[in-house]
Amino acid sequence: MKYLIVGLGNIGEEYRLTRHNIGFMILDALAGASNISFKTERYGDVAHCRIKNKQLVLLKPSTYMNLSGEAVRYWSQKEKIPVDHILILVDDLALPFGAIRMKGSGSDAGHNGLKNIALLLGTQAYPRLRFGIGSDFARGHQVDYVLGKFTPEQMEALPARLEVAIDAIKTFVLAGLQTAMCNYNNK
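Request: output the structure for the sequence above.
Response:
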């Protein structure tokens, strides 16, 4: 069985380690733990790995956040991966820093990357892992906050939180979405 694991983020050095790029950071941590590297291909950086008998295609879209659906649609069709085997890794302002929430469907909650994915997949019923980035910003400064860097305290805590996200991905692949939700939501 194949799975498409997509980390959302923006390309470019100026966005590296920003809150909006947590999806890229999770995939980088997973690739590092699996001793694999990404290769630039059509619509993004791609890596392949196995977890037991499951084949994973890791994708960091190069389409910028708001057009992520193009990369997701292309790779899901190319690899013949059904929608329920796609997992989108995304930042979430509504969750405190480091909190994880997995869902099998839902609204885009104003996230333009998720909005574009739903549009191009033709459904909002695709699994996602939301990683909390908190909401400690002044009114009107949401964009600056999302595109800003994590605090030093958050950077110190980040490796442990990335490990939890990786474990949630592995559980999703090996035991299914319901088990992953039960084990990792609210952790």
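Residues 2-184 form a domain with the Rossmann fold fold (CATH 3.40.50.1470).
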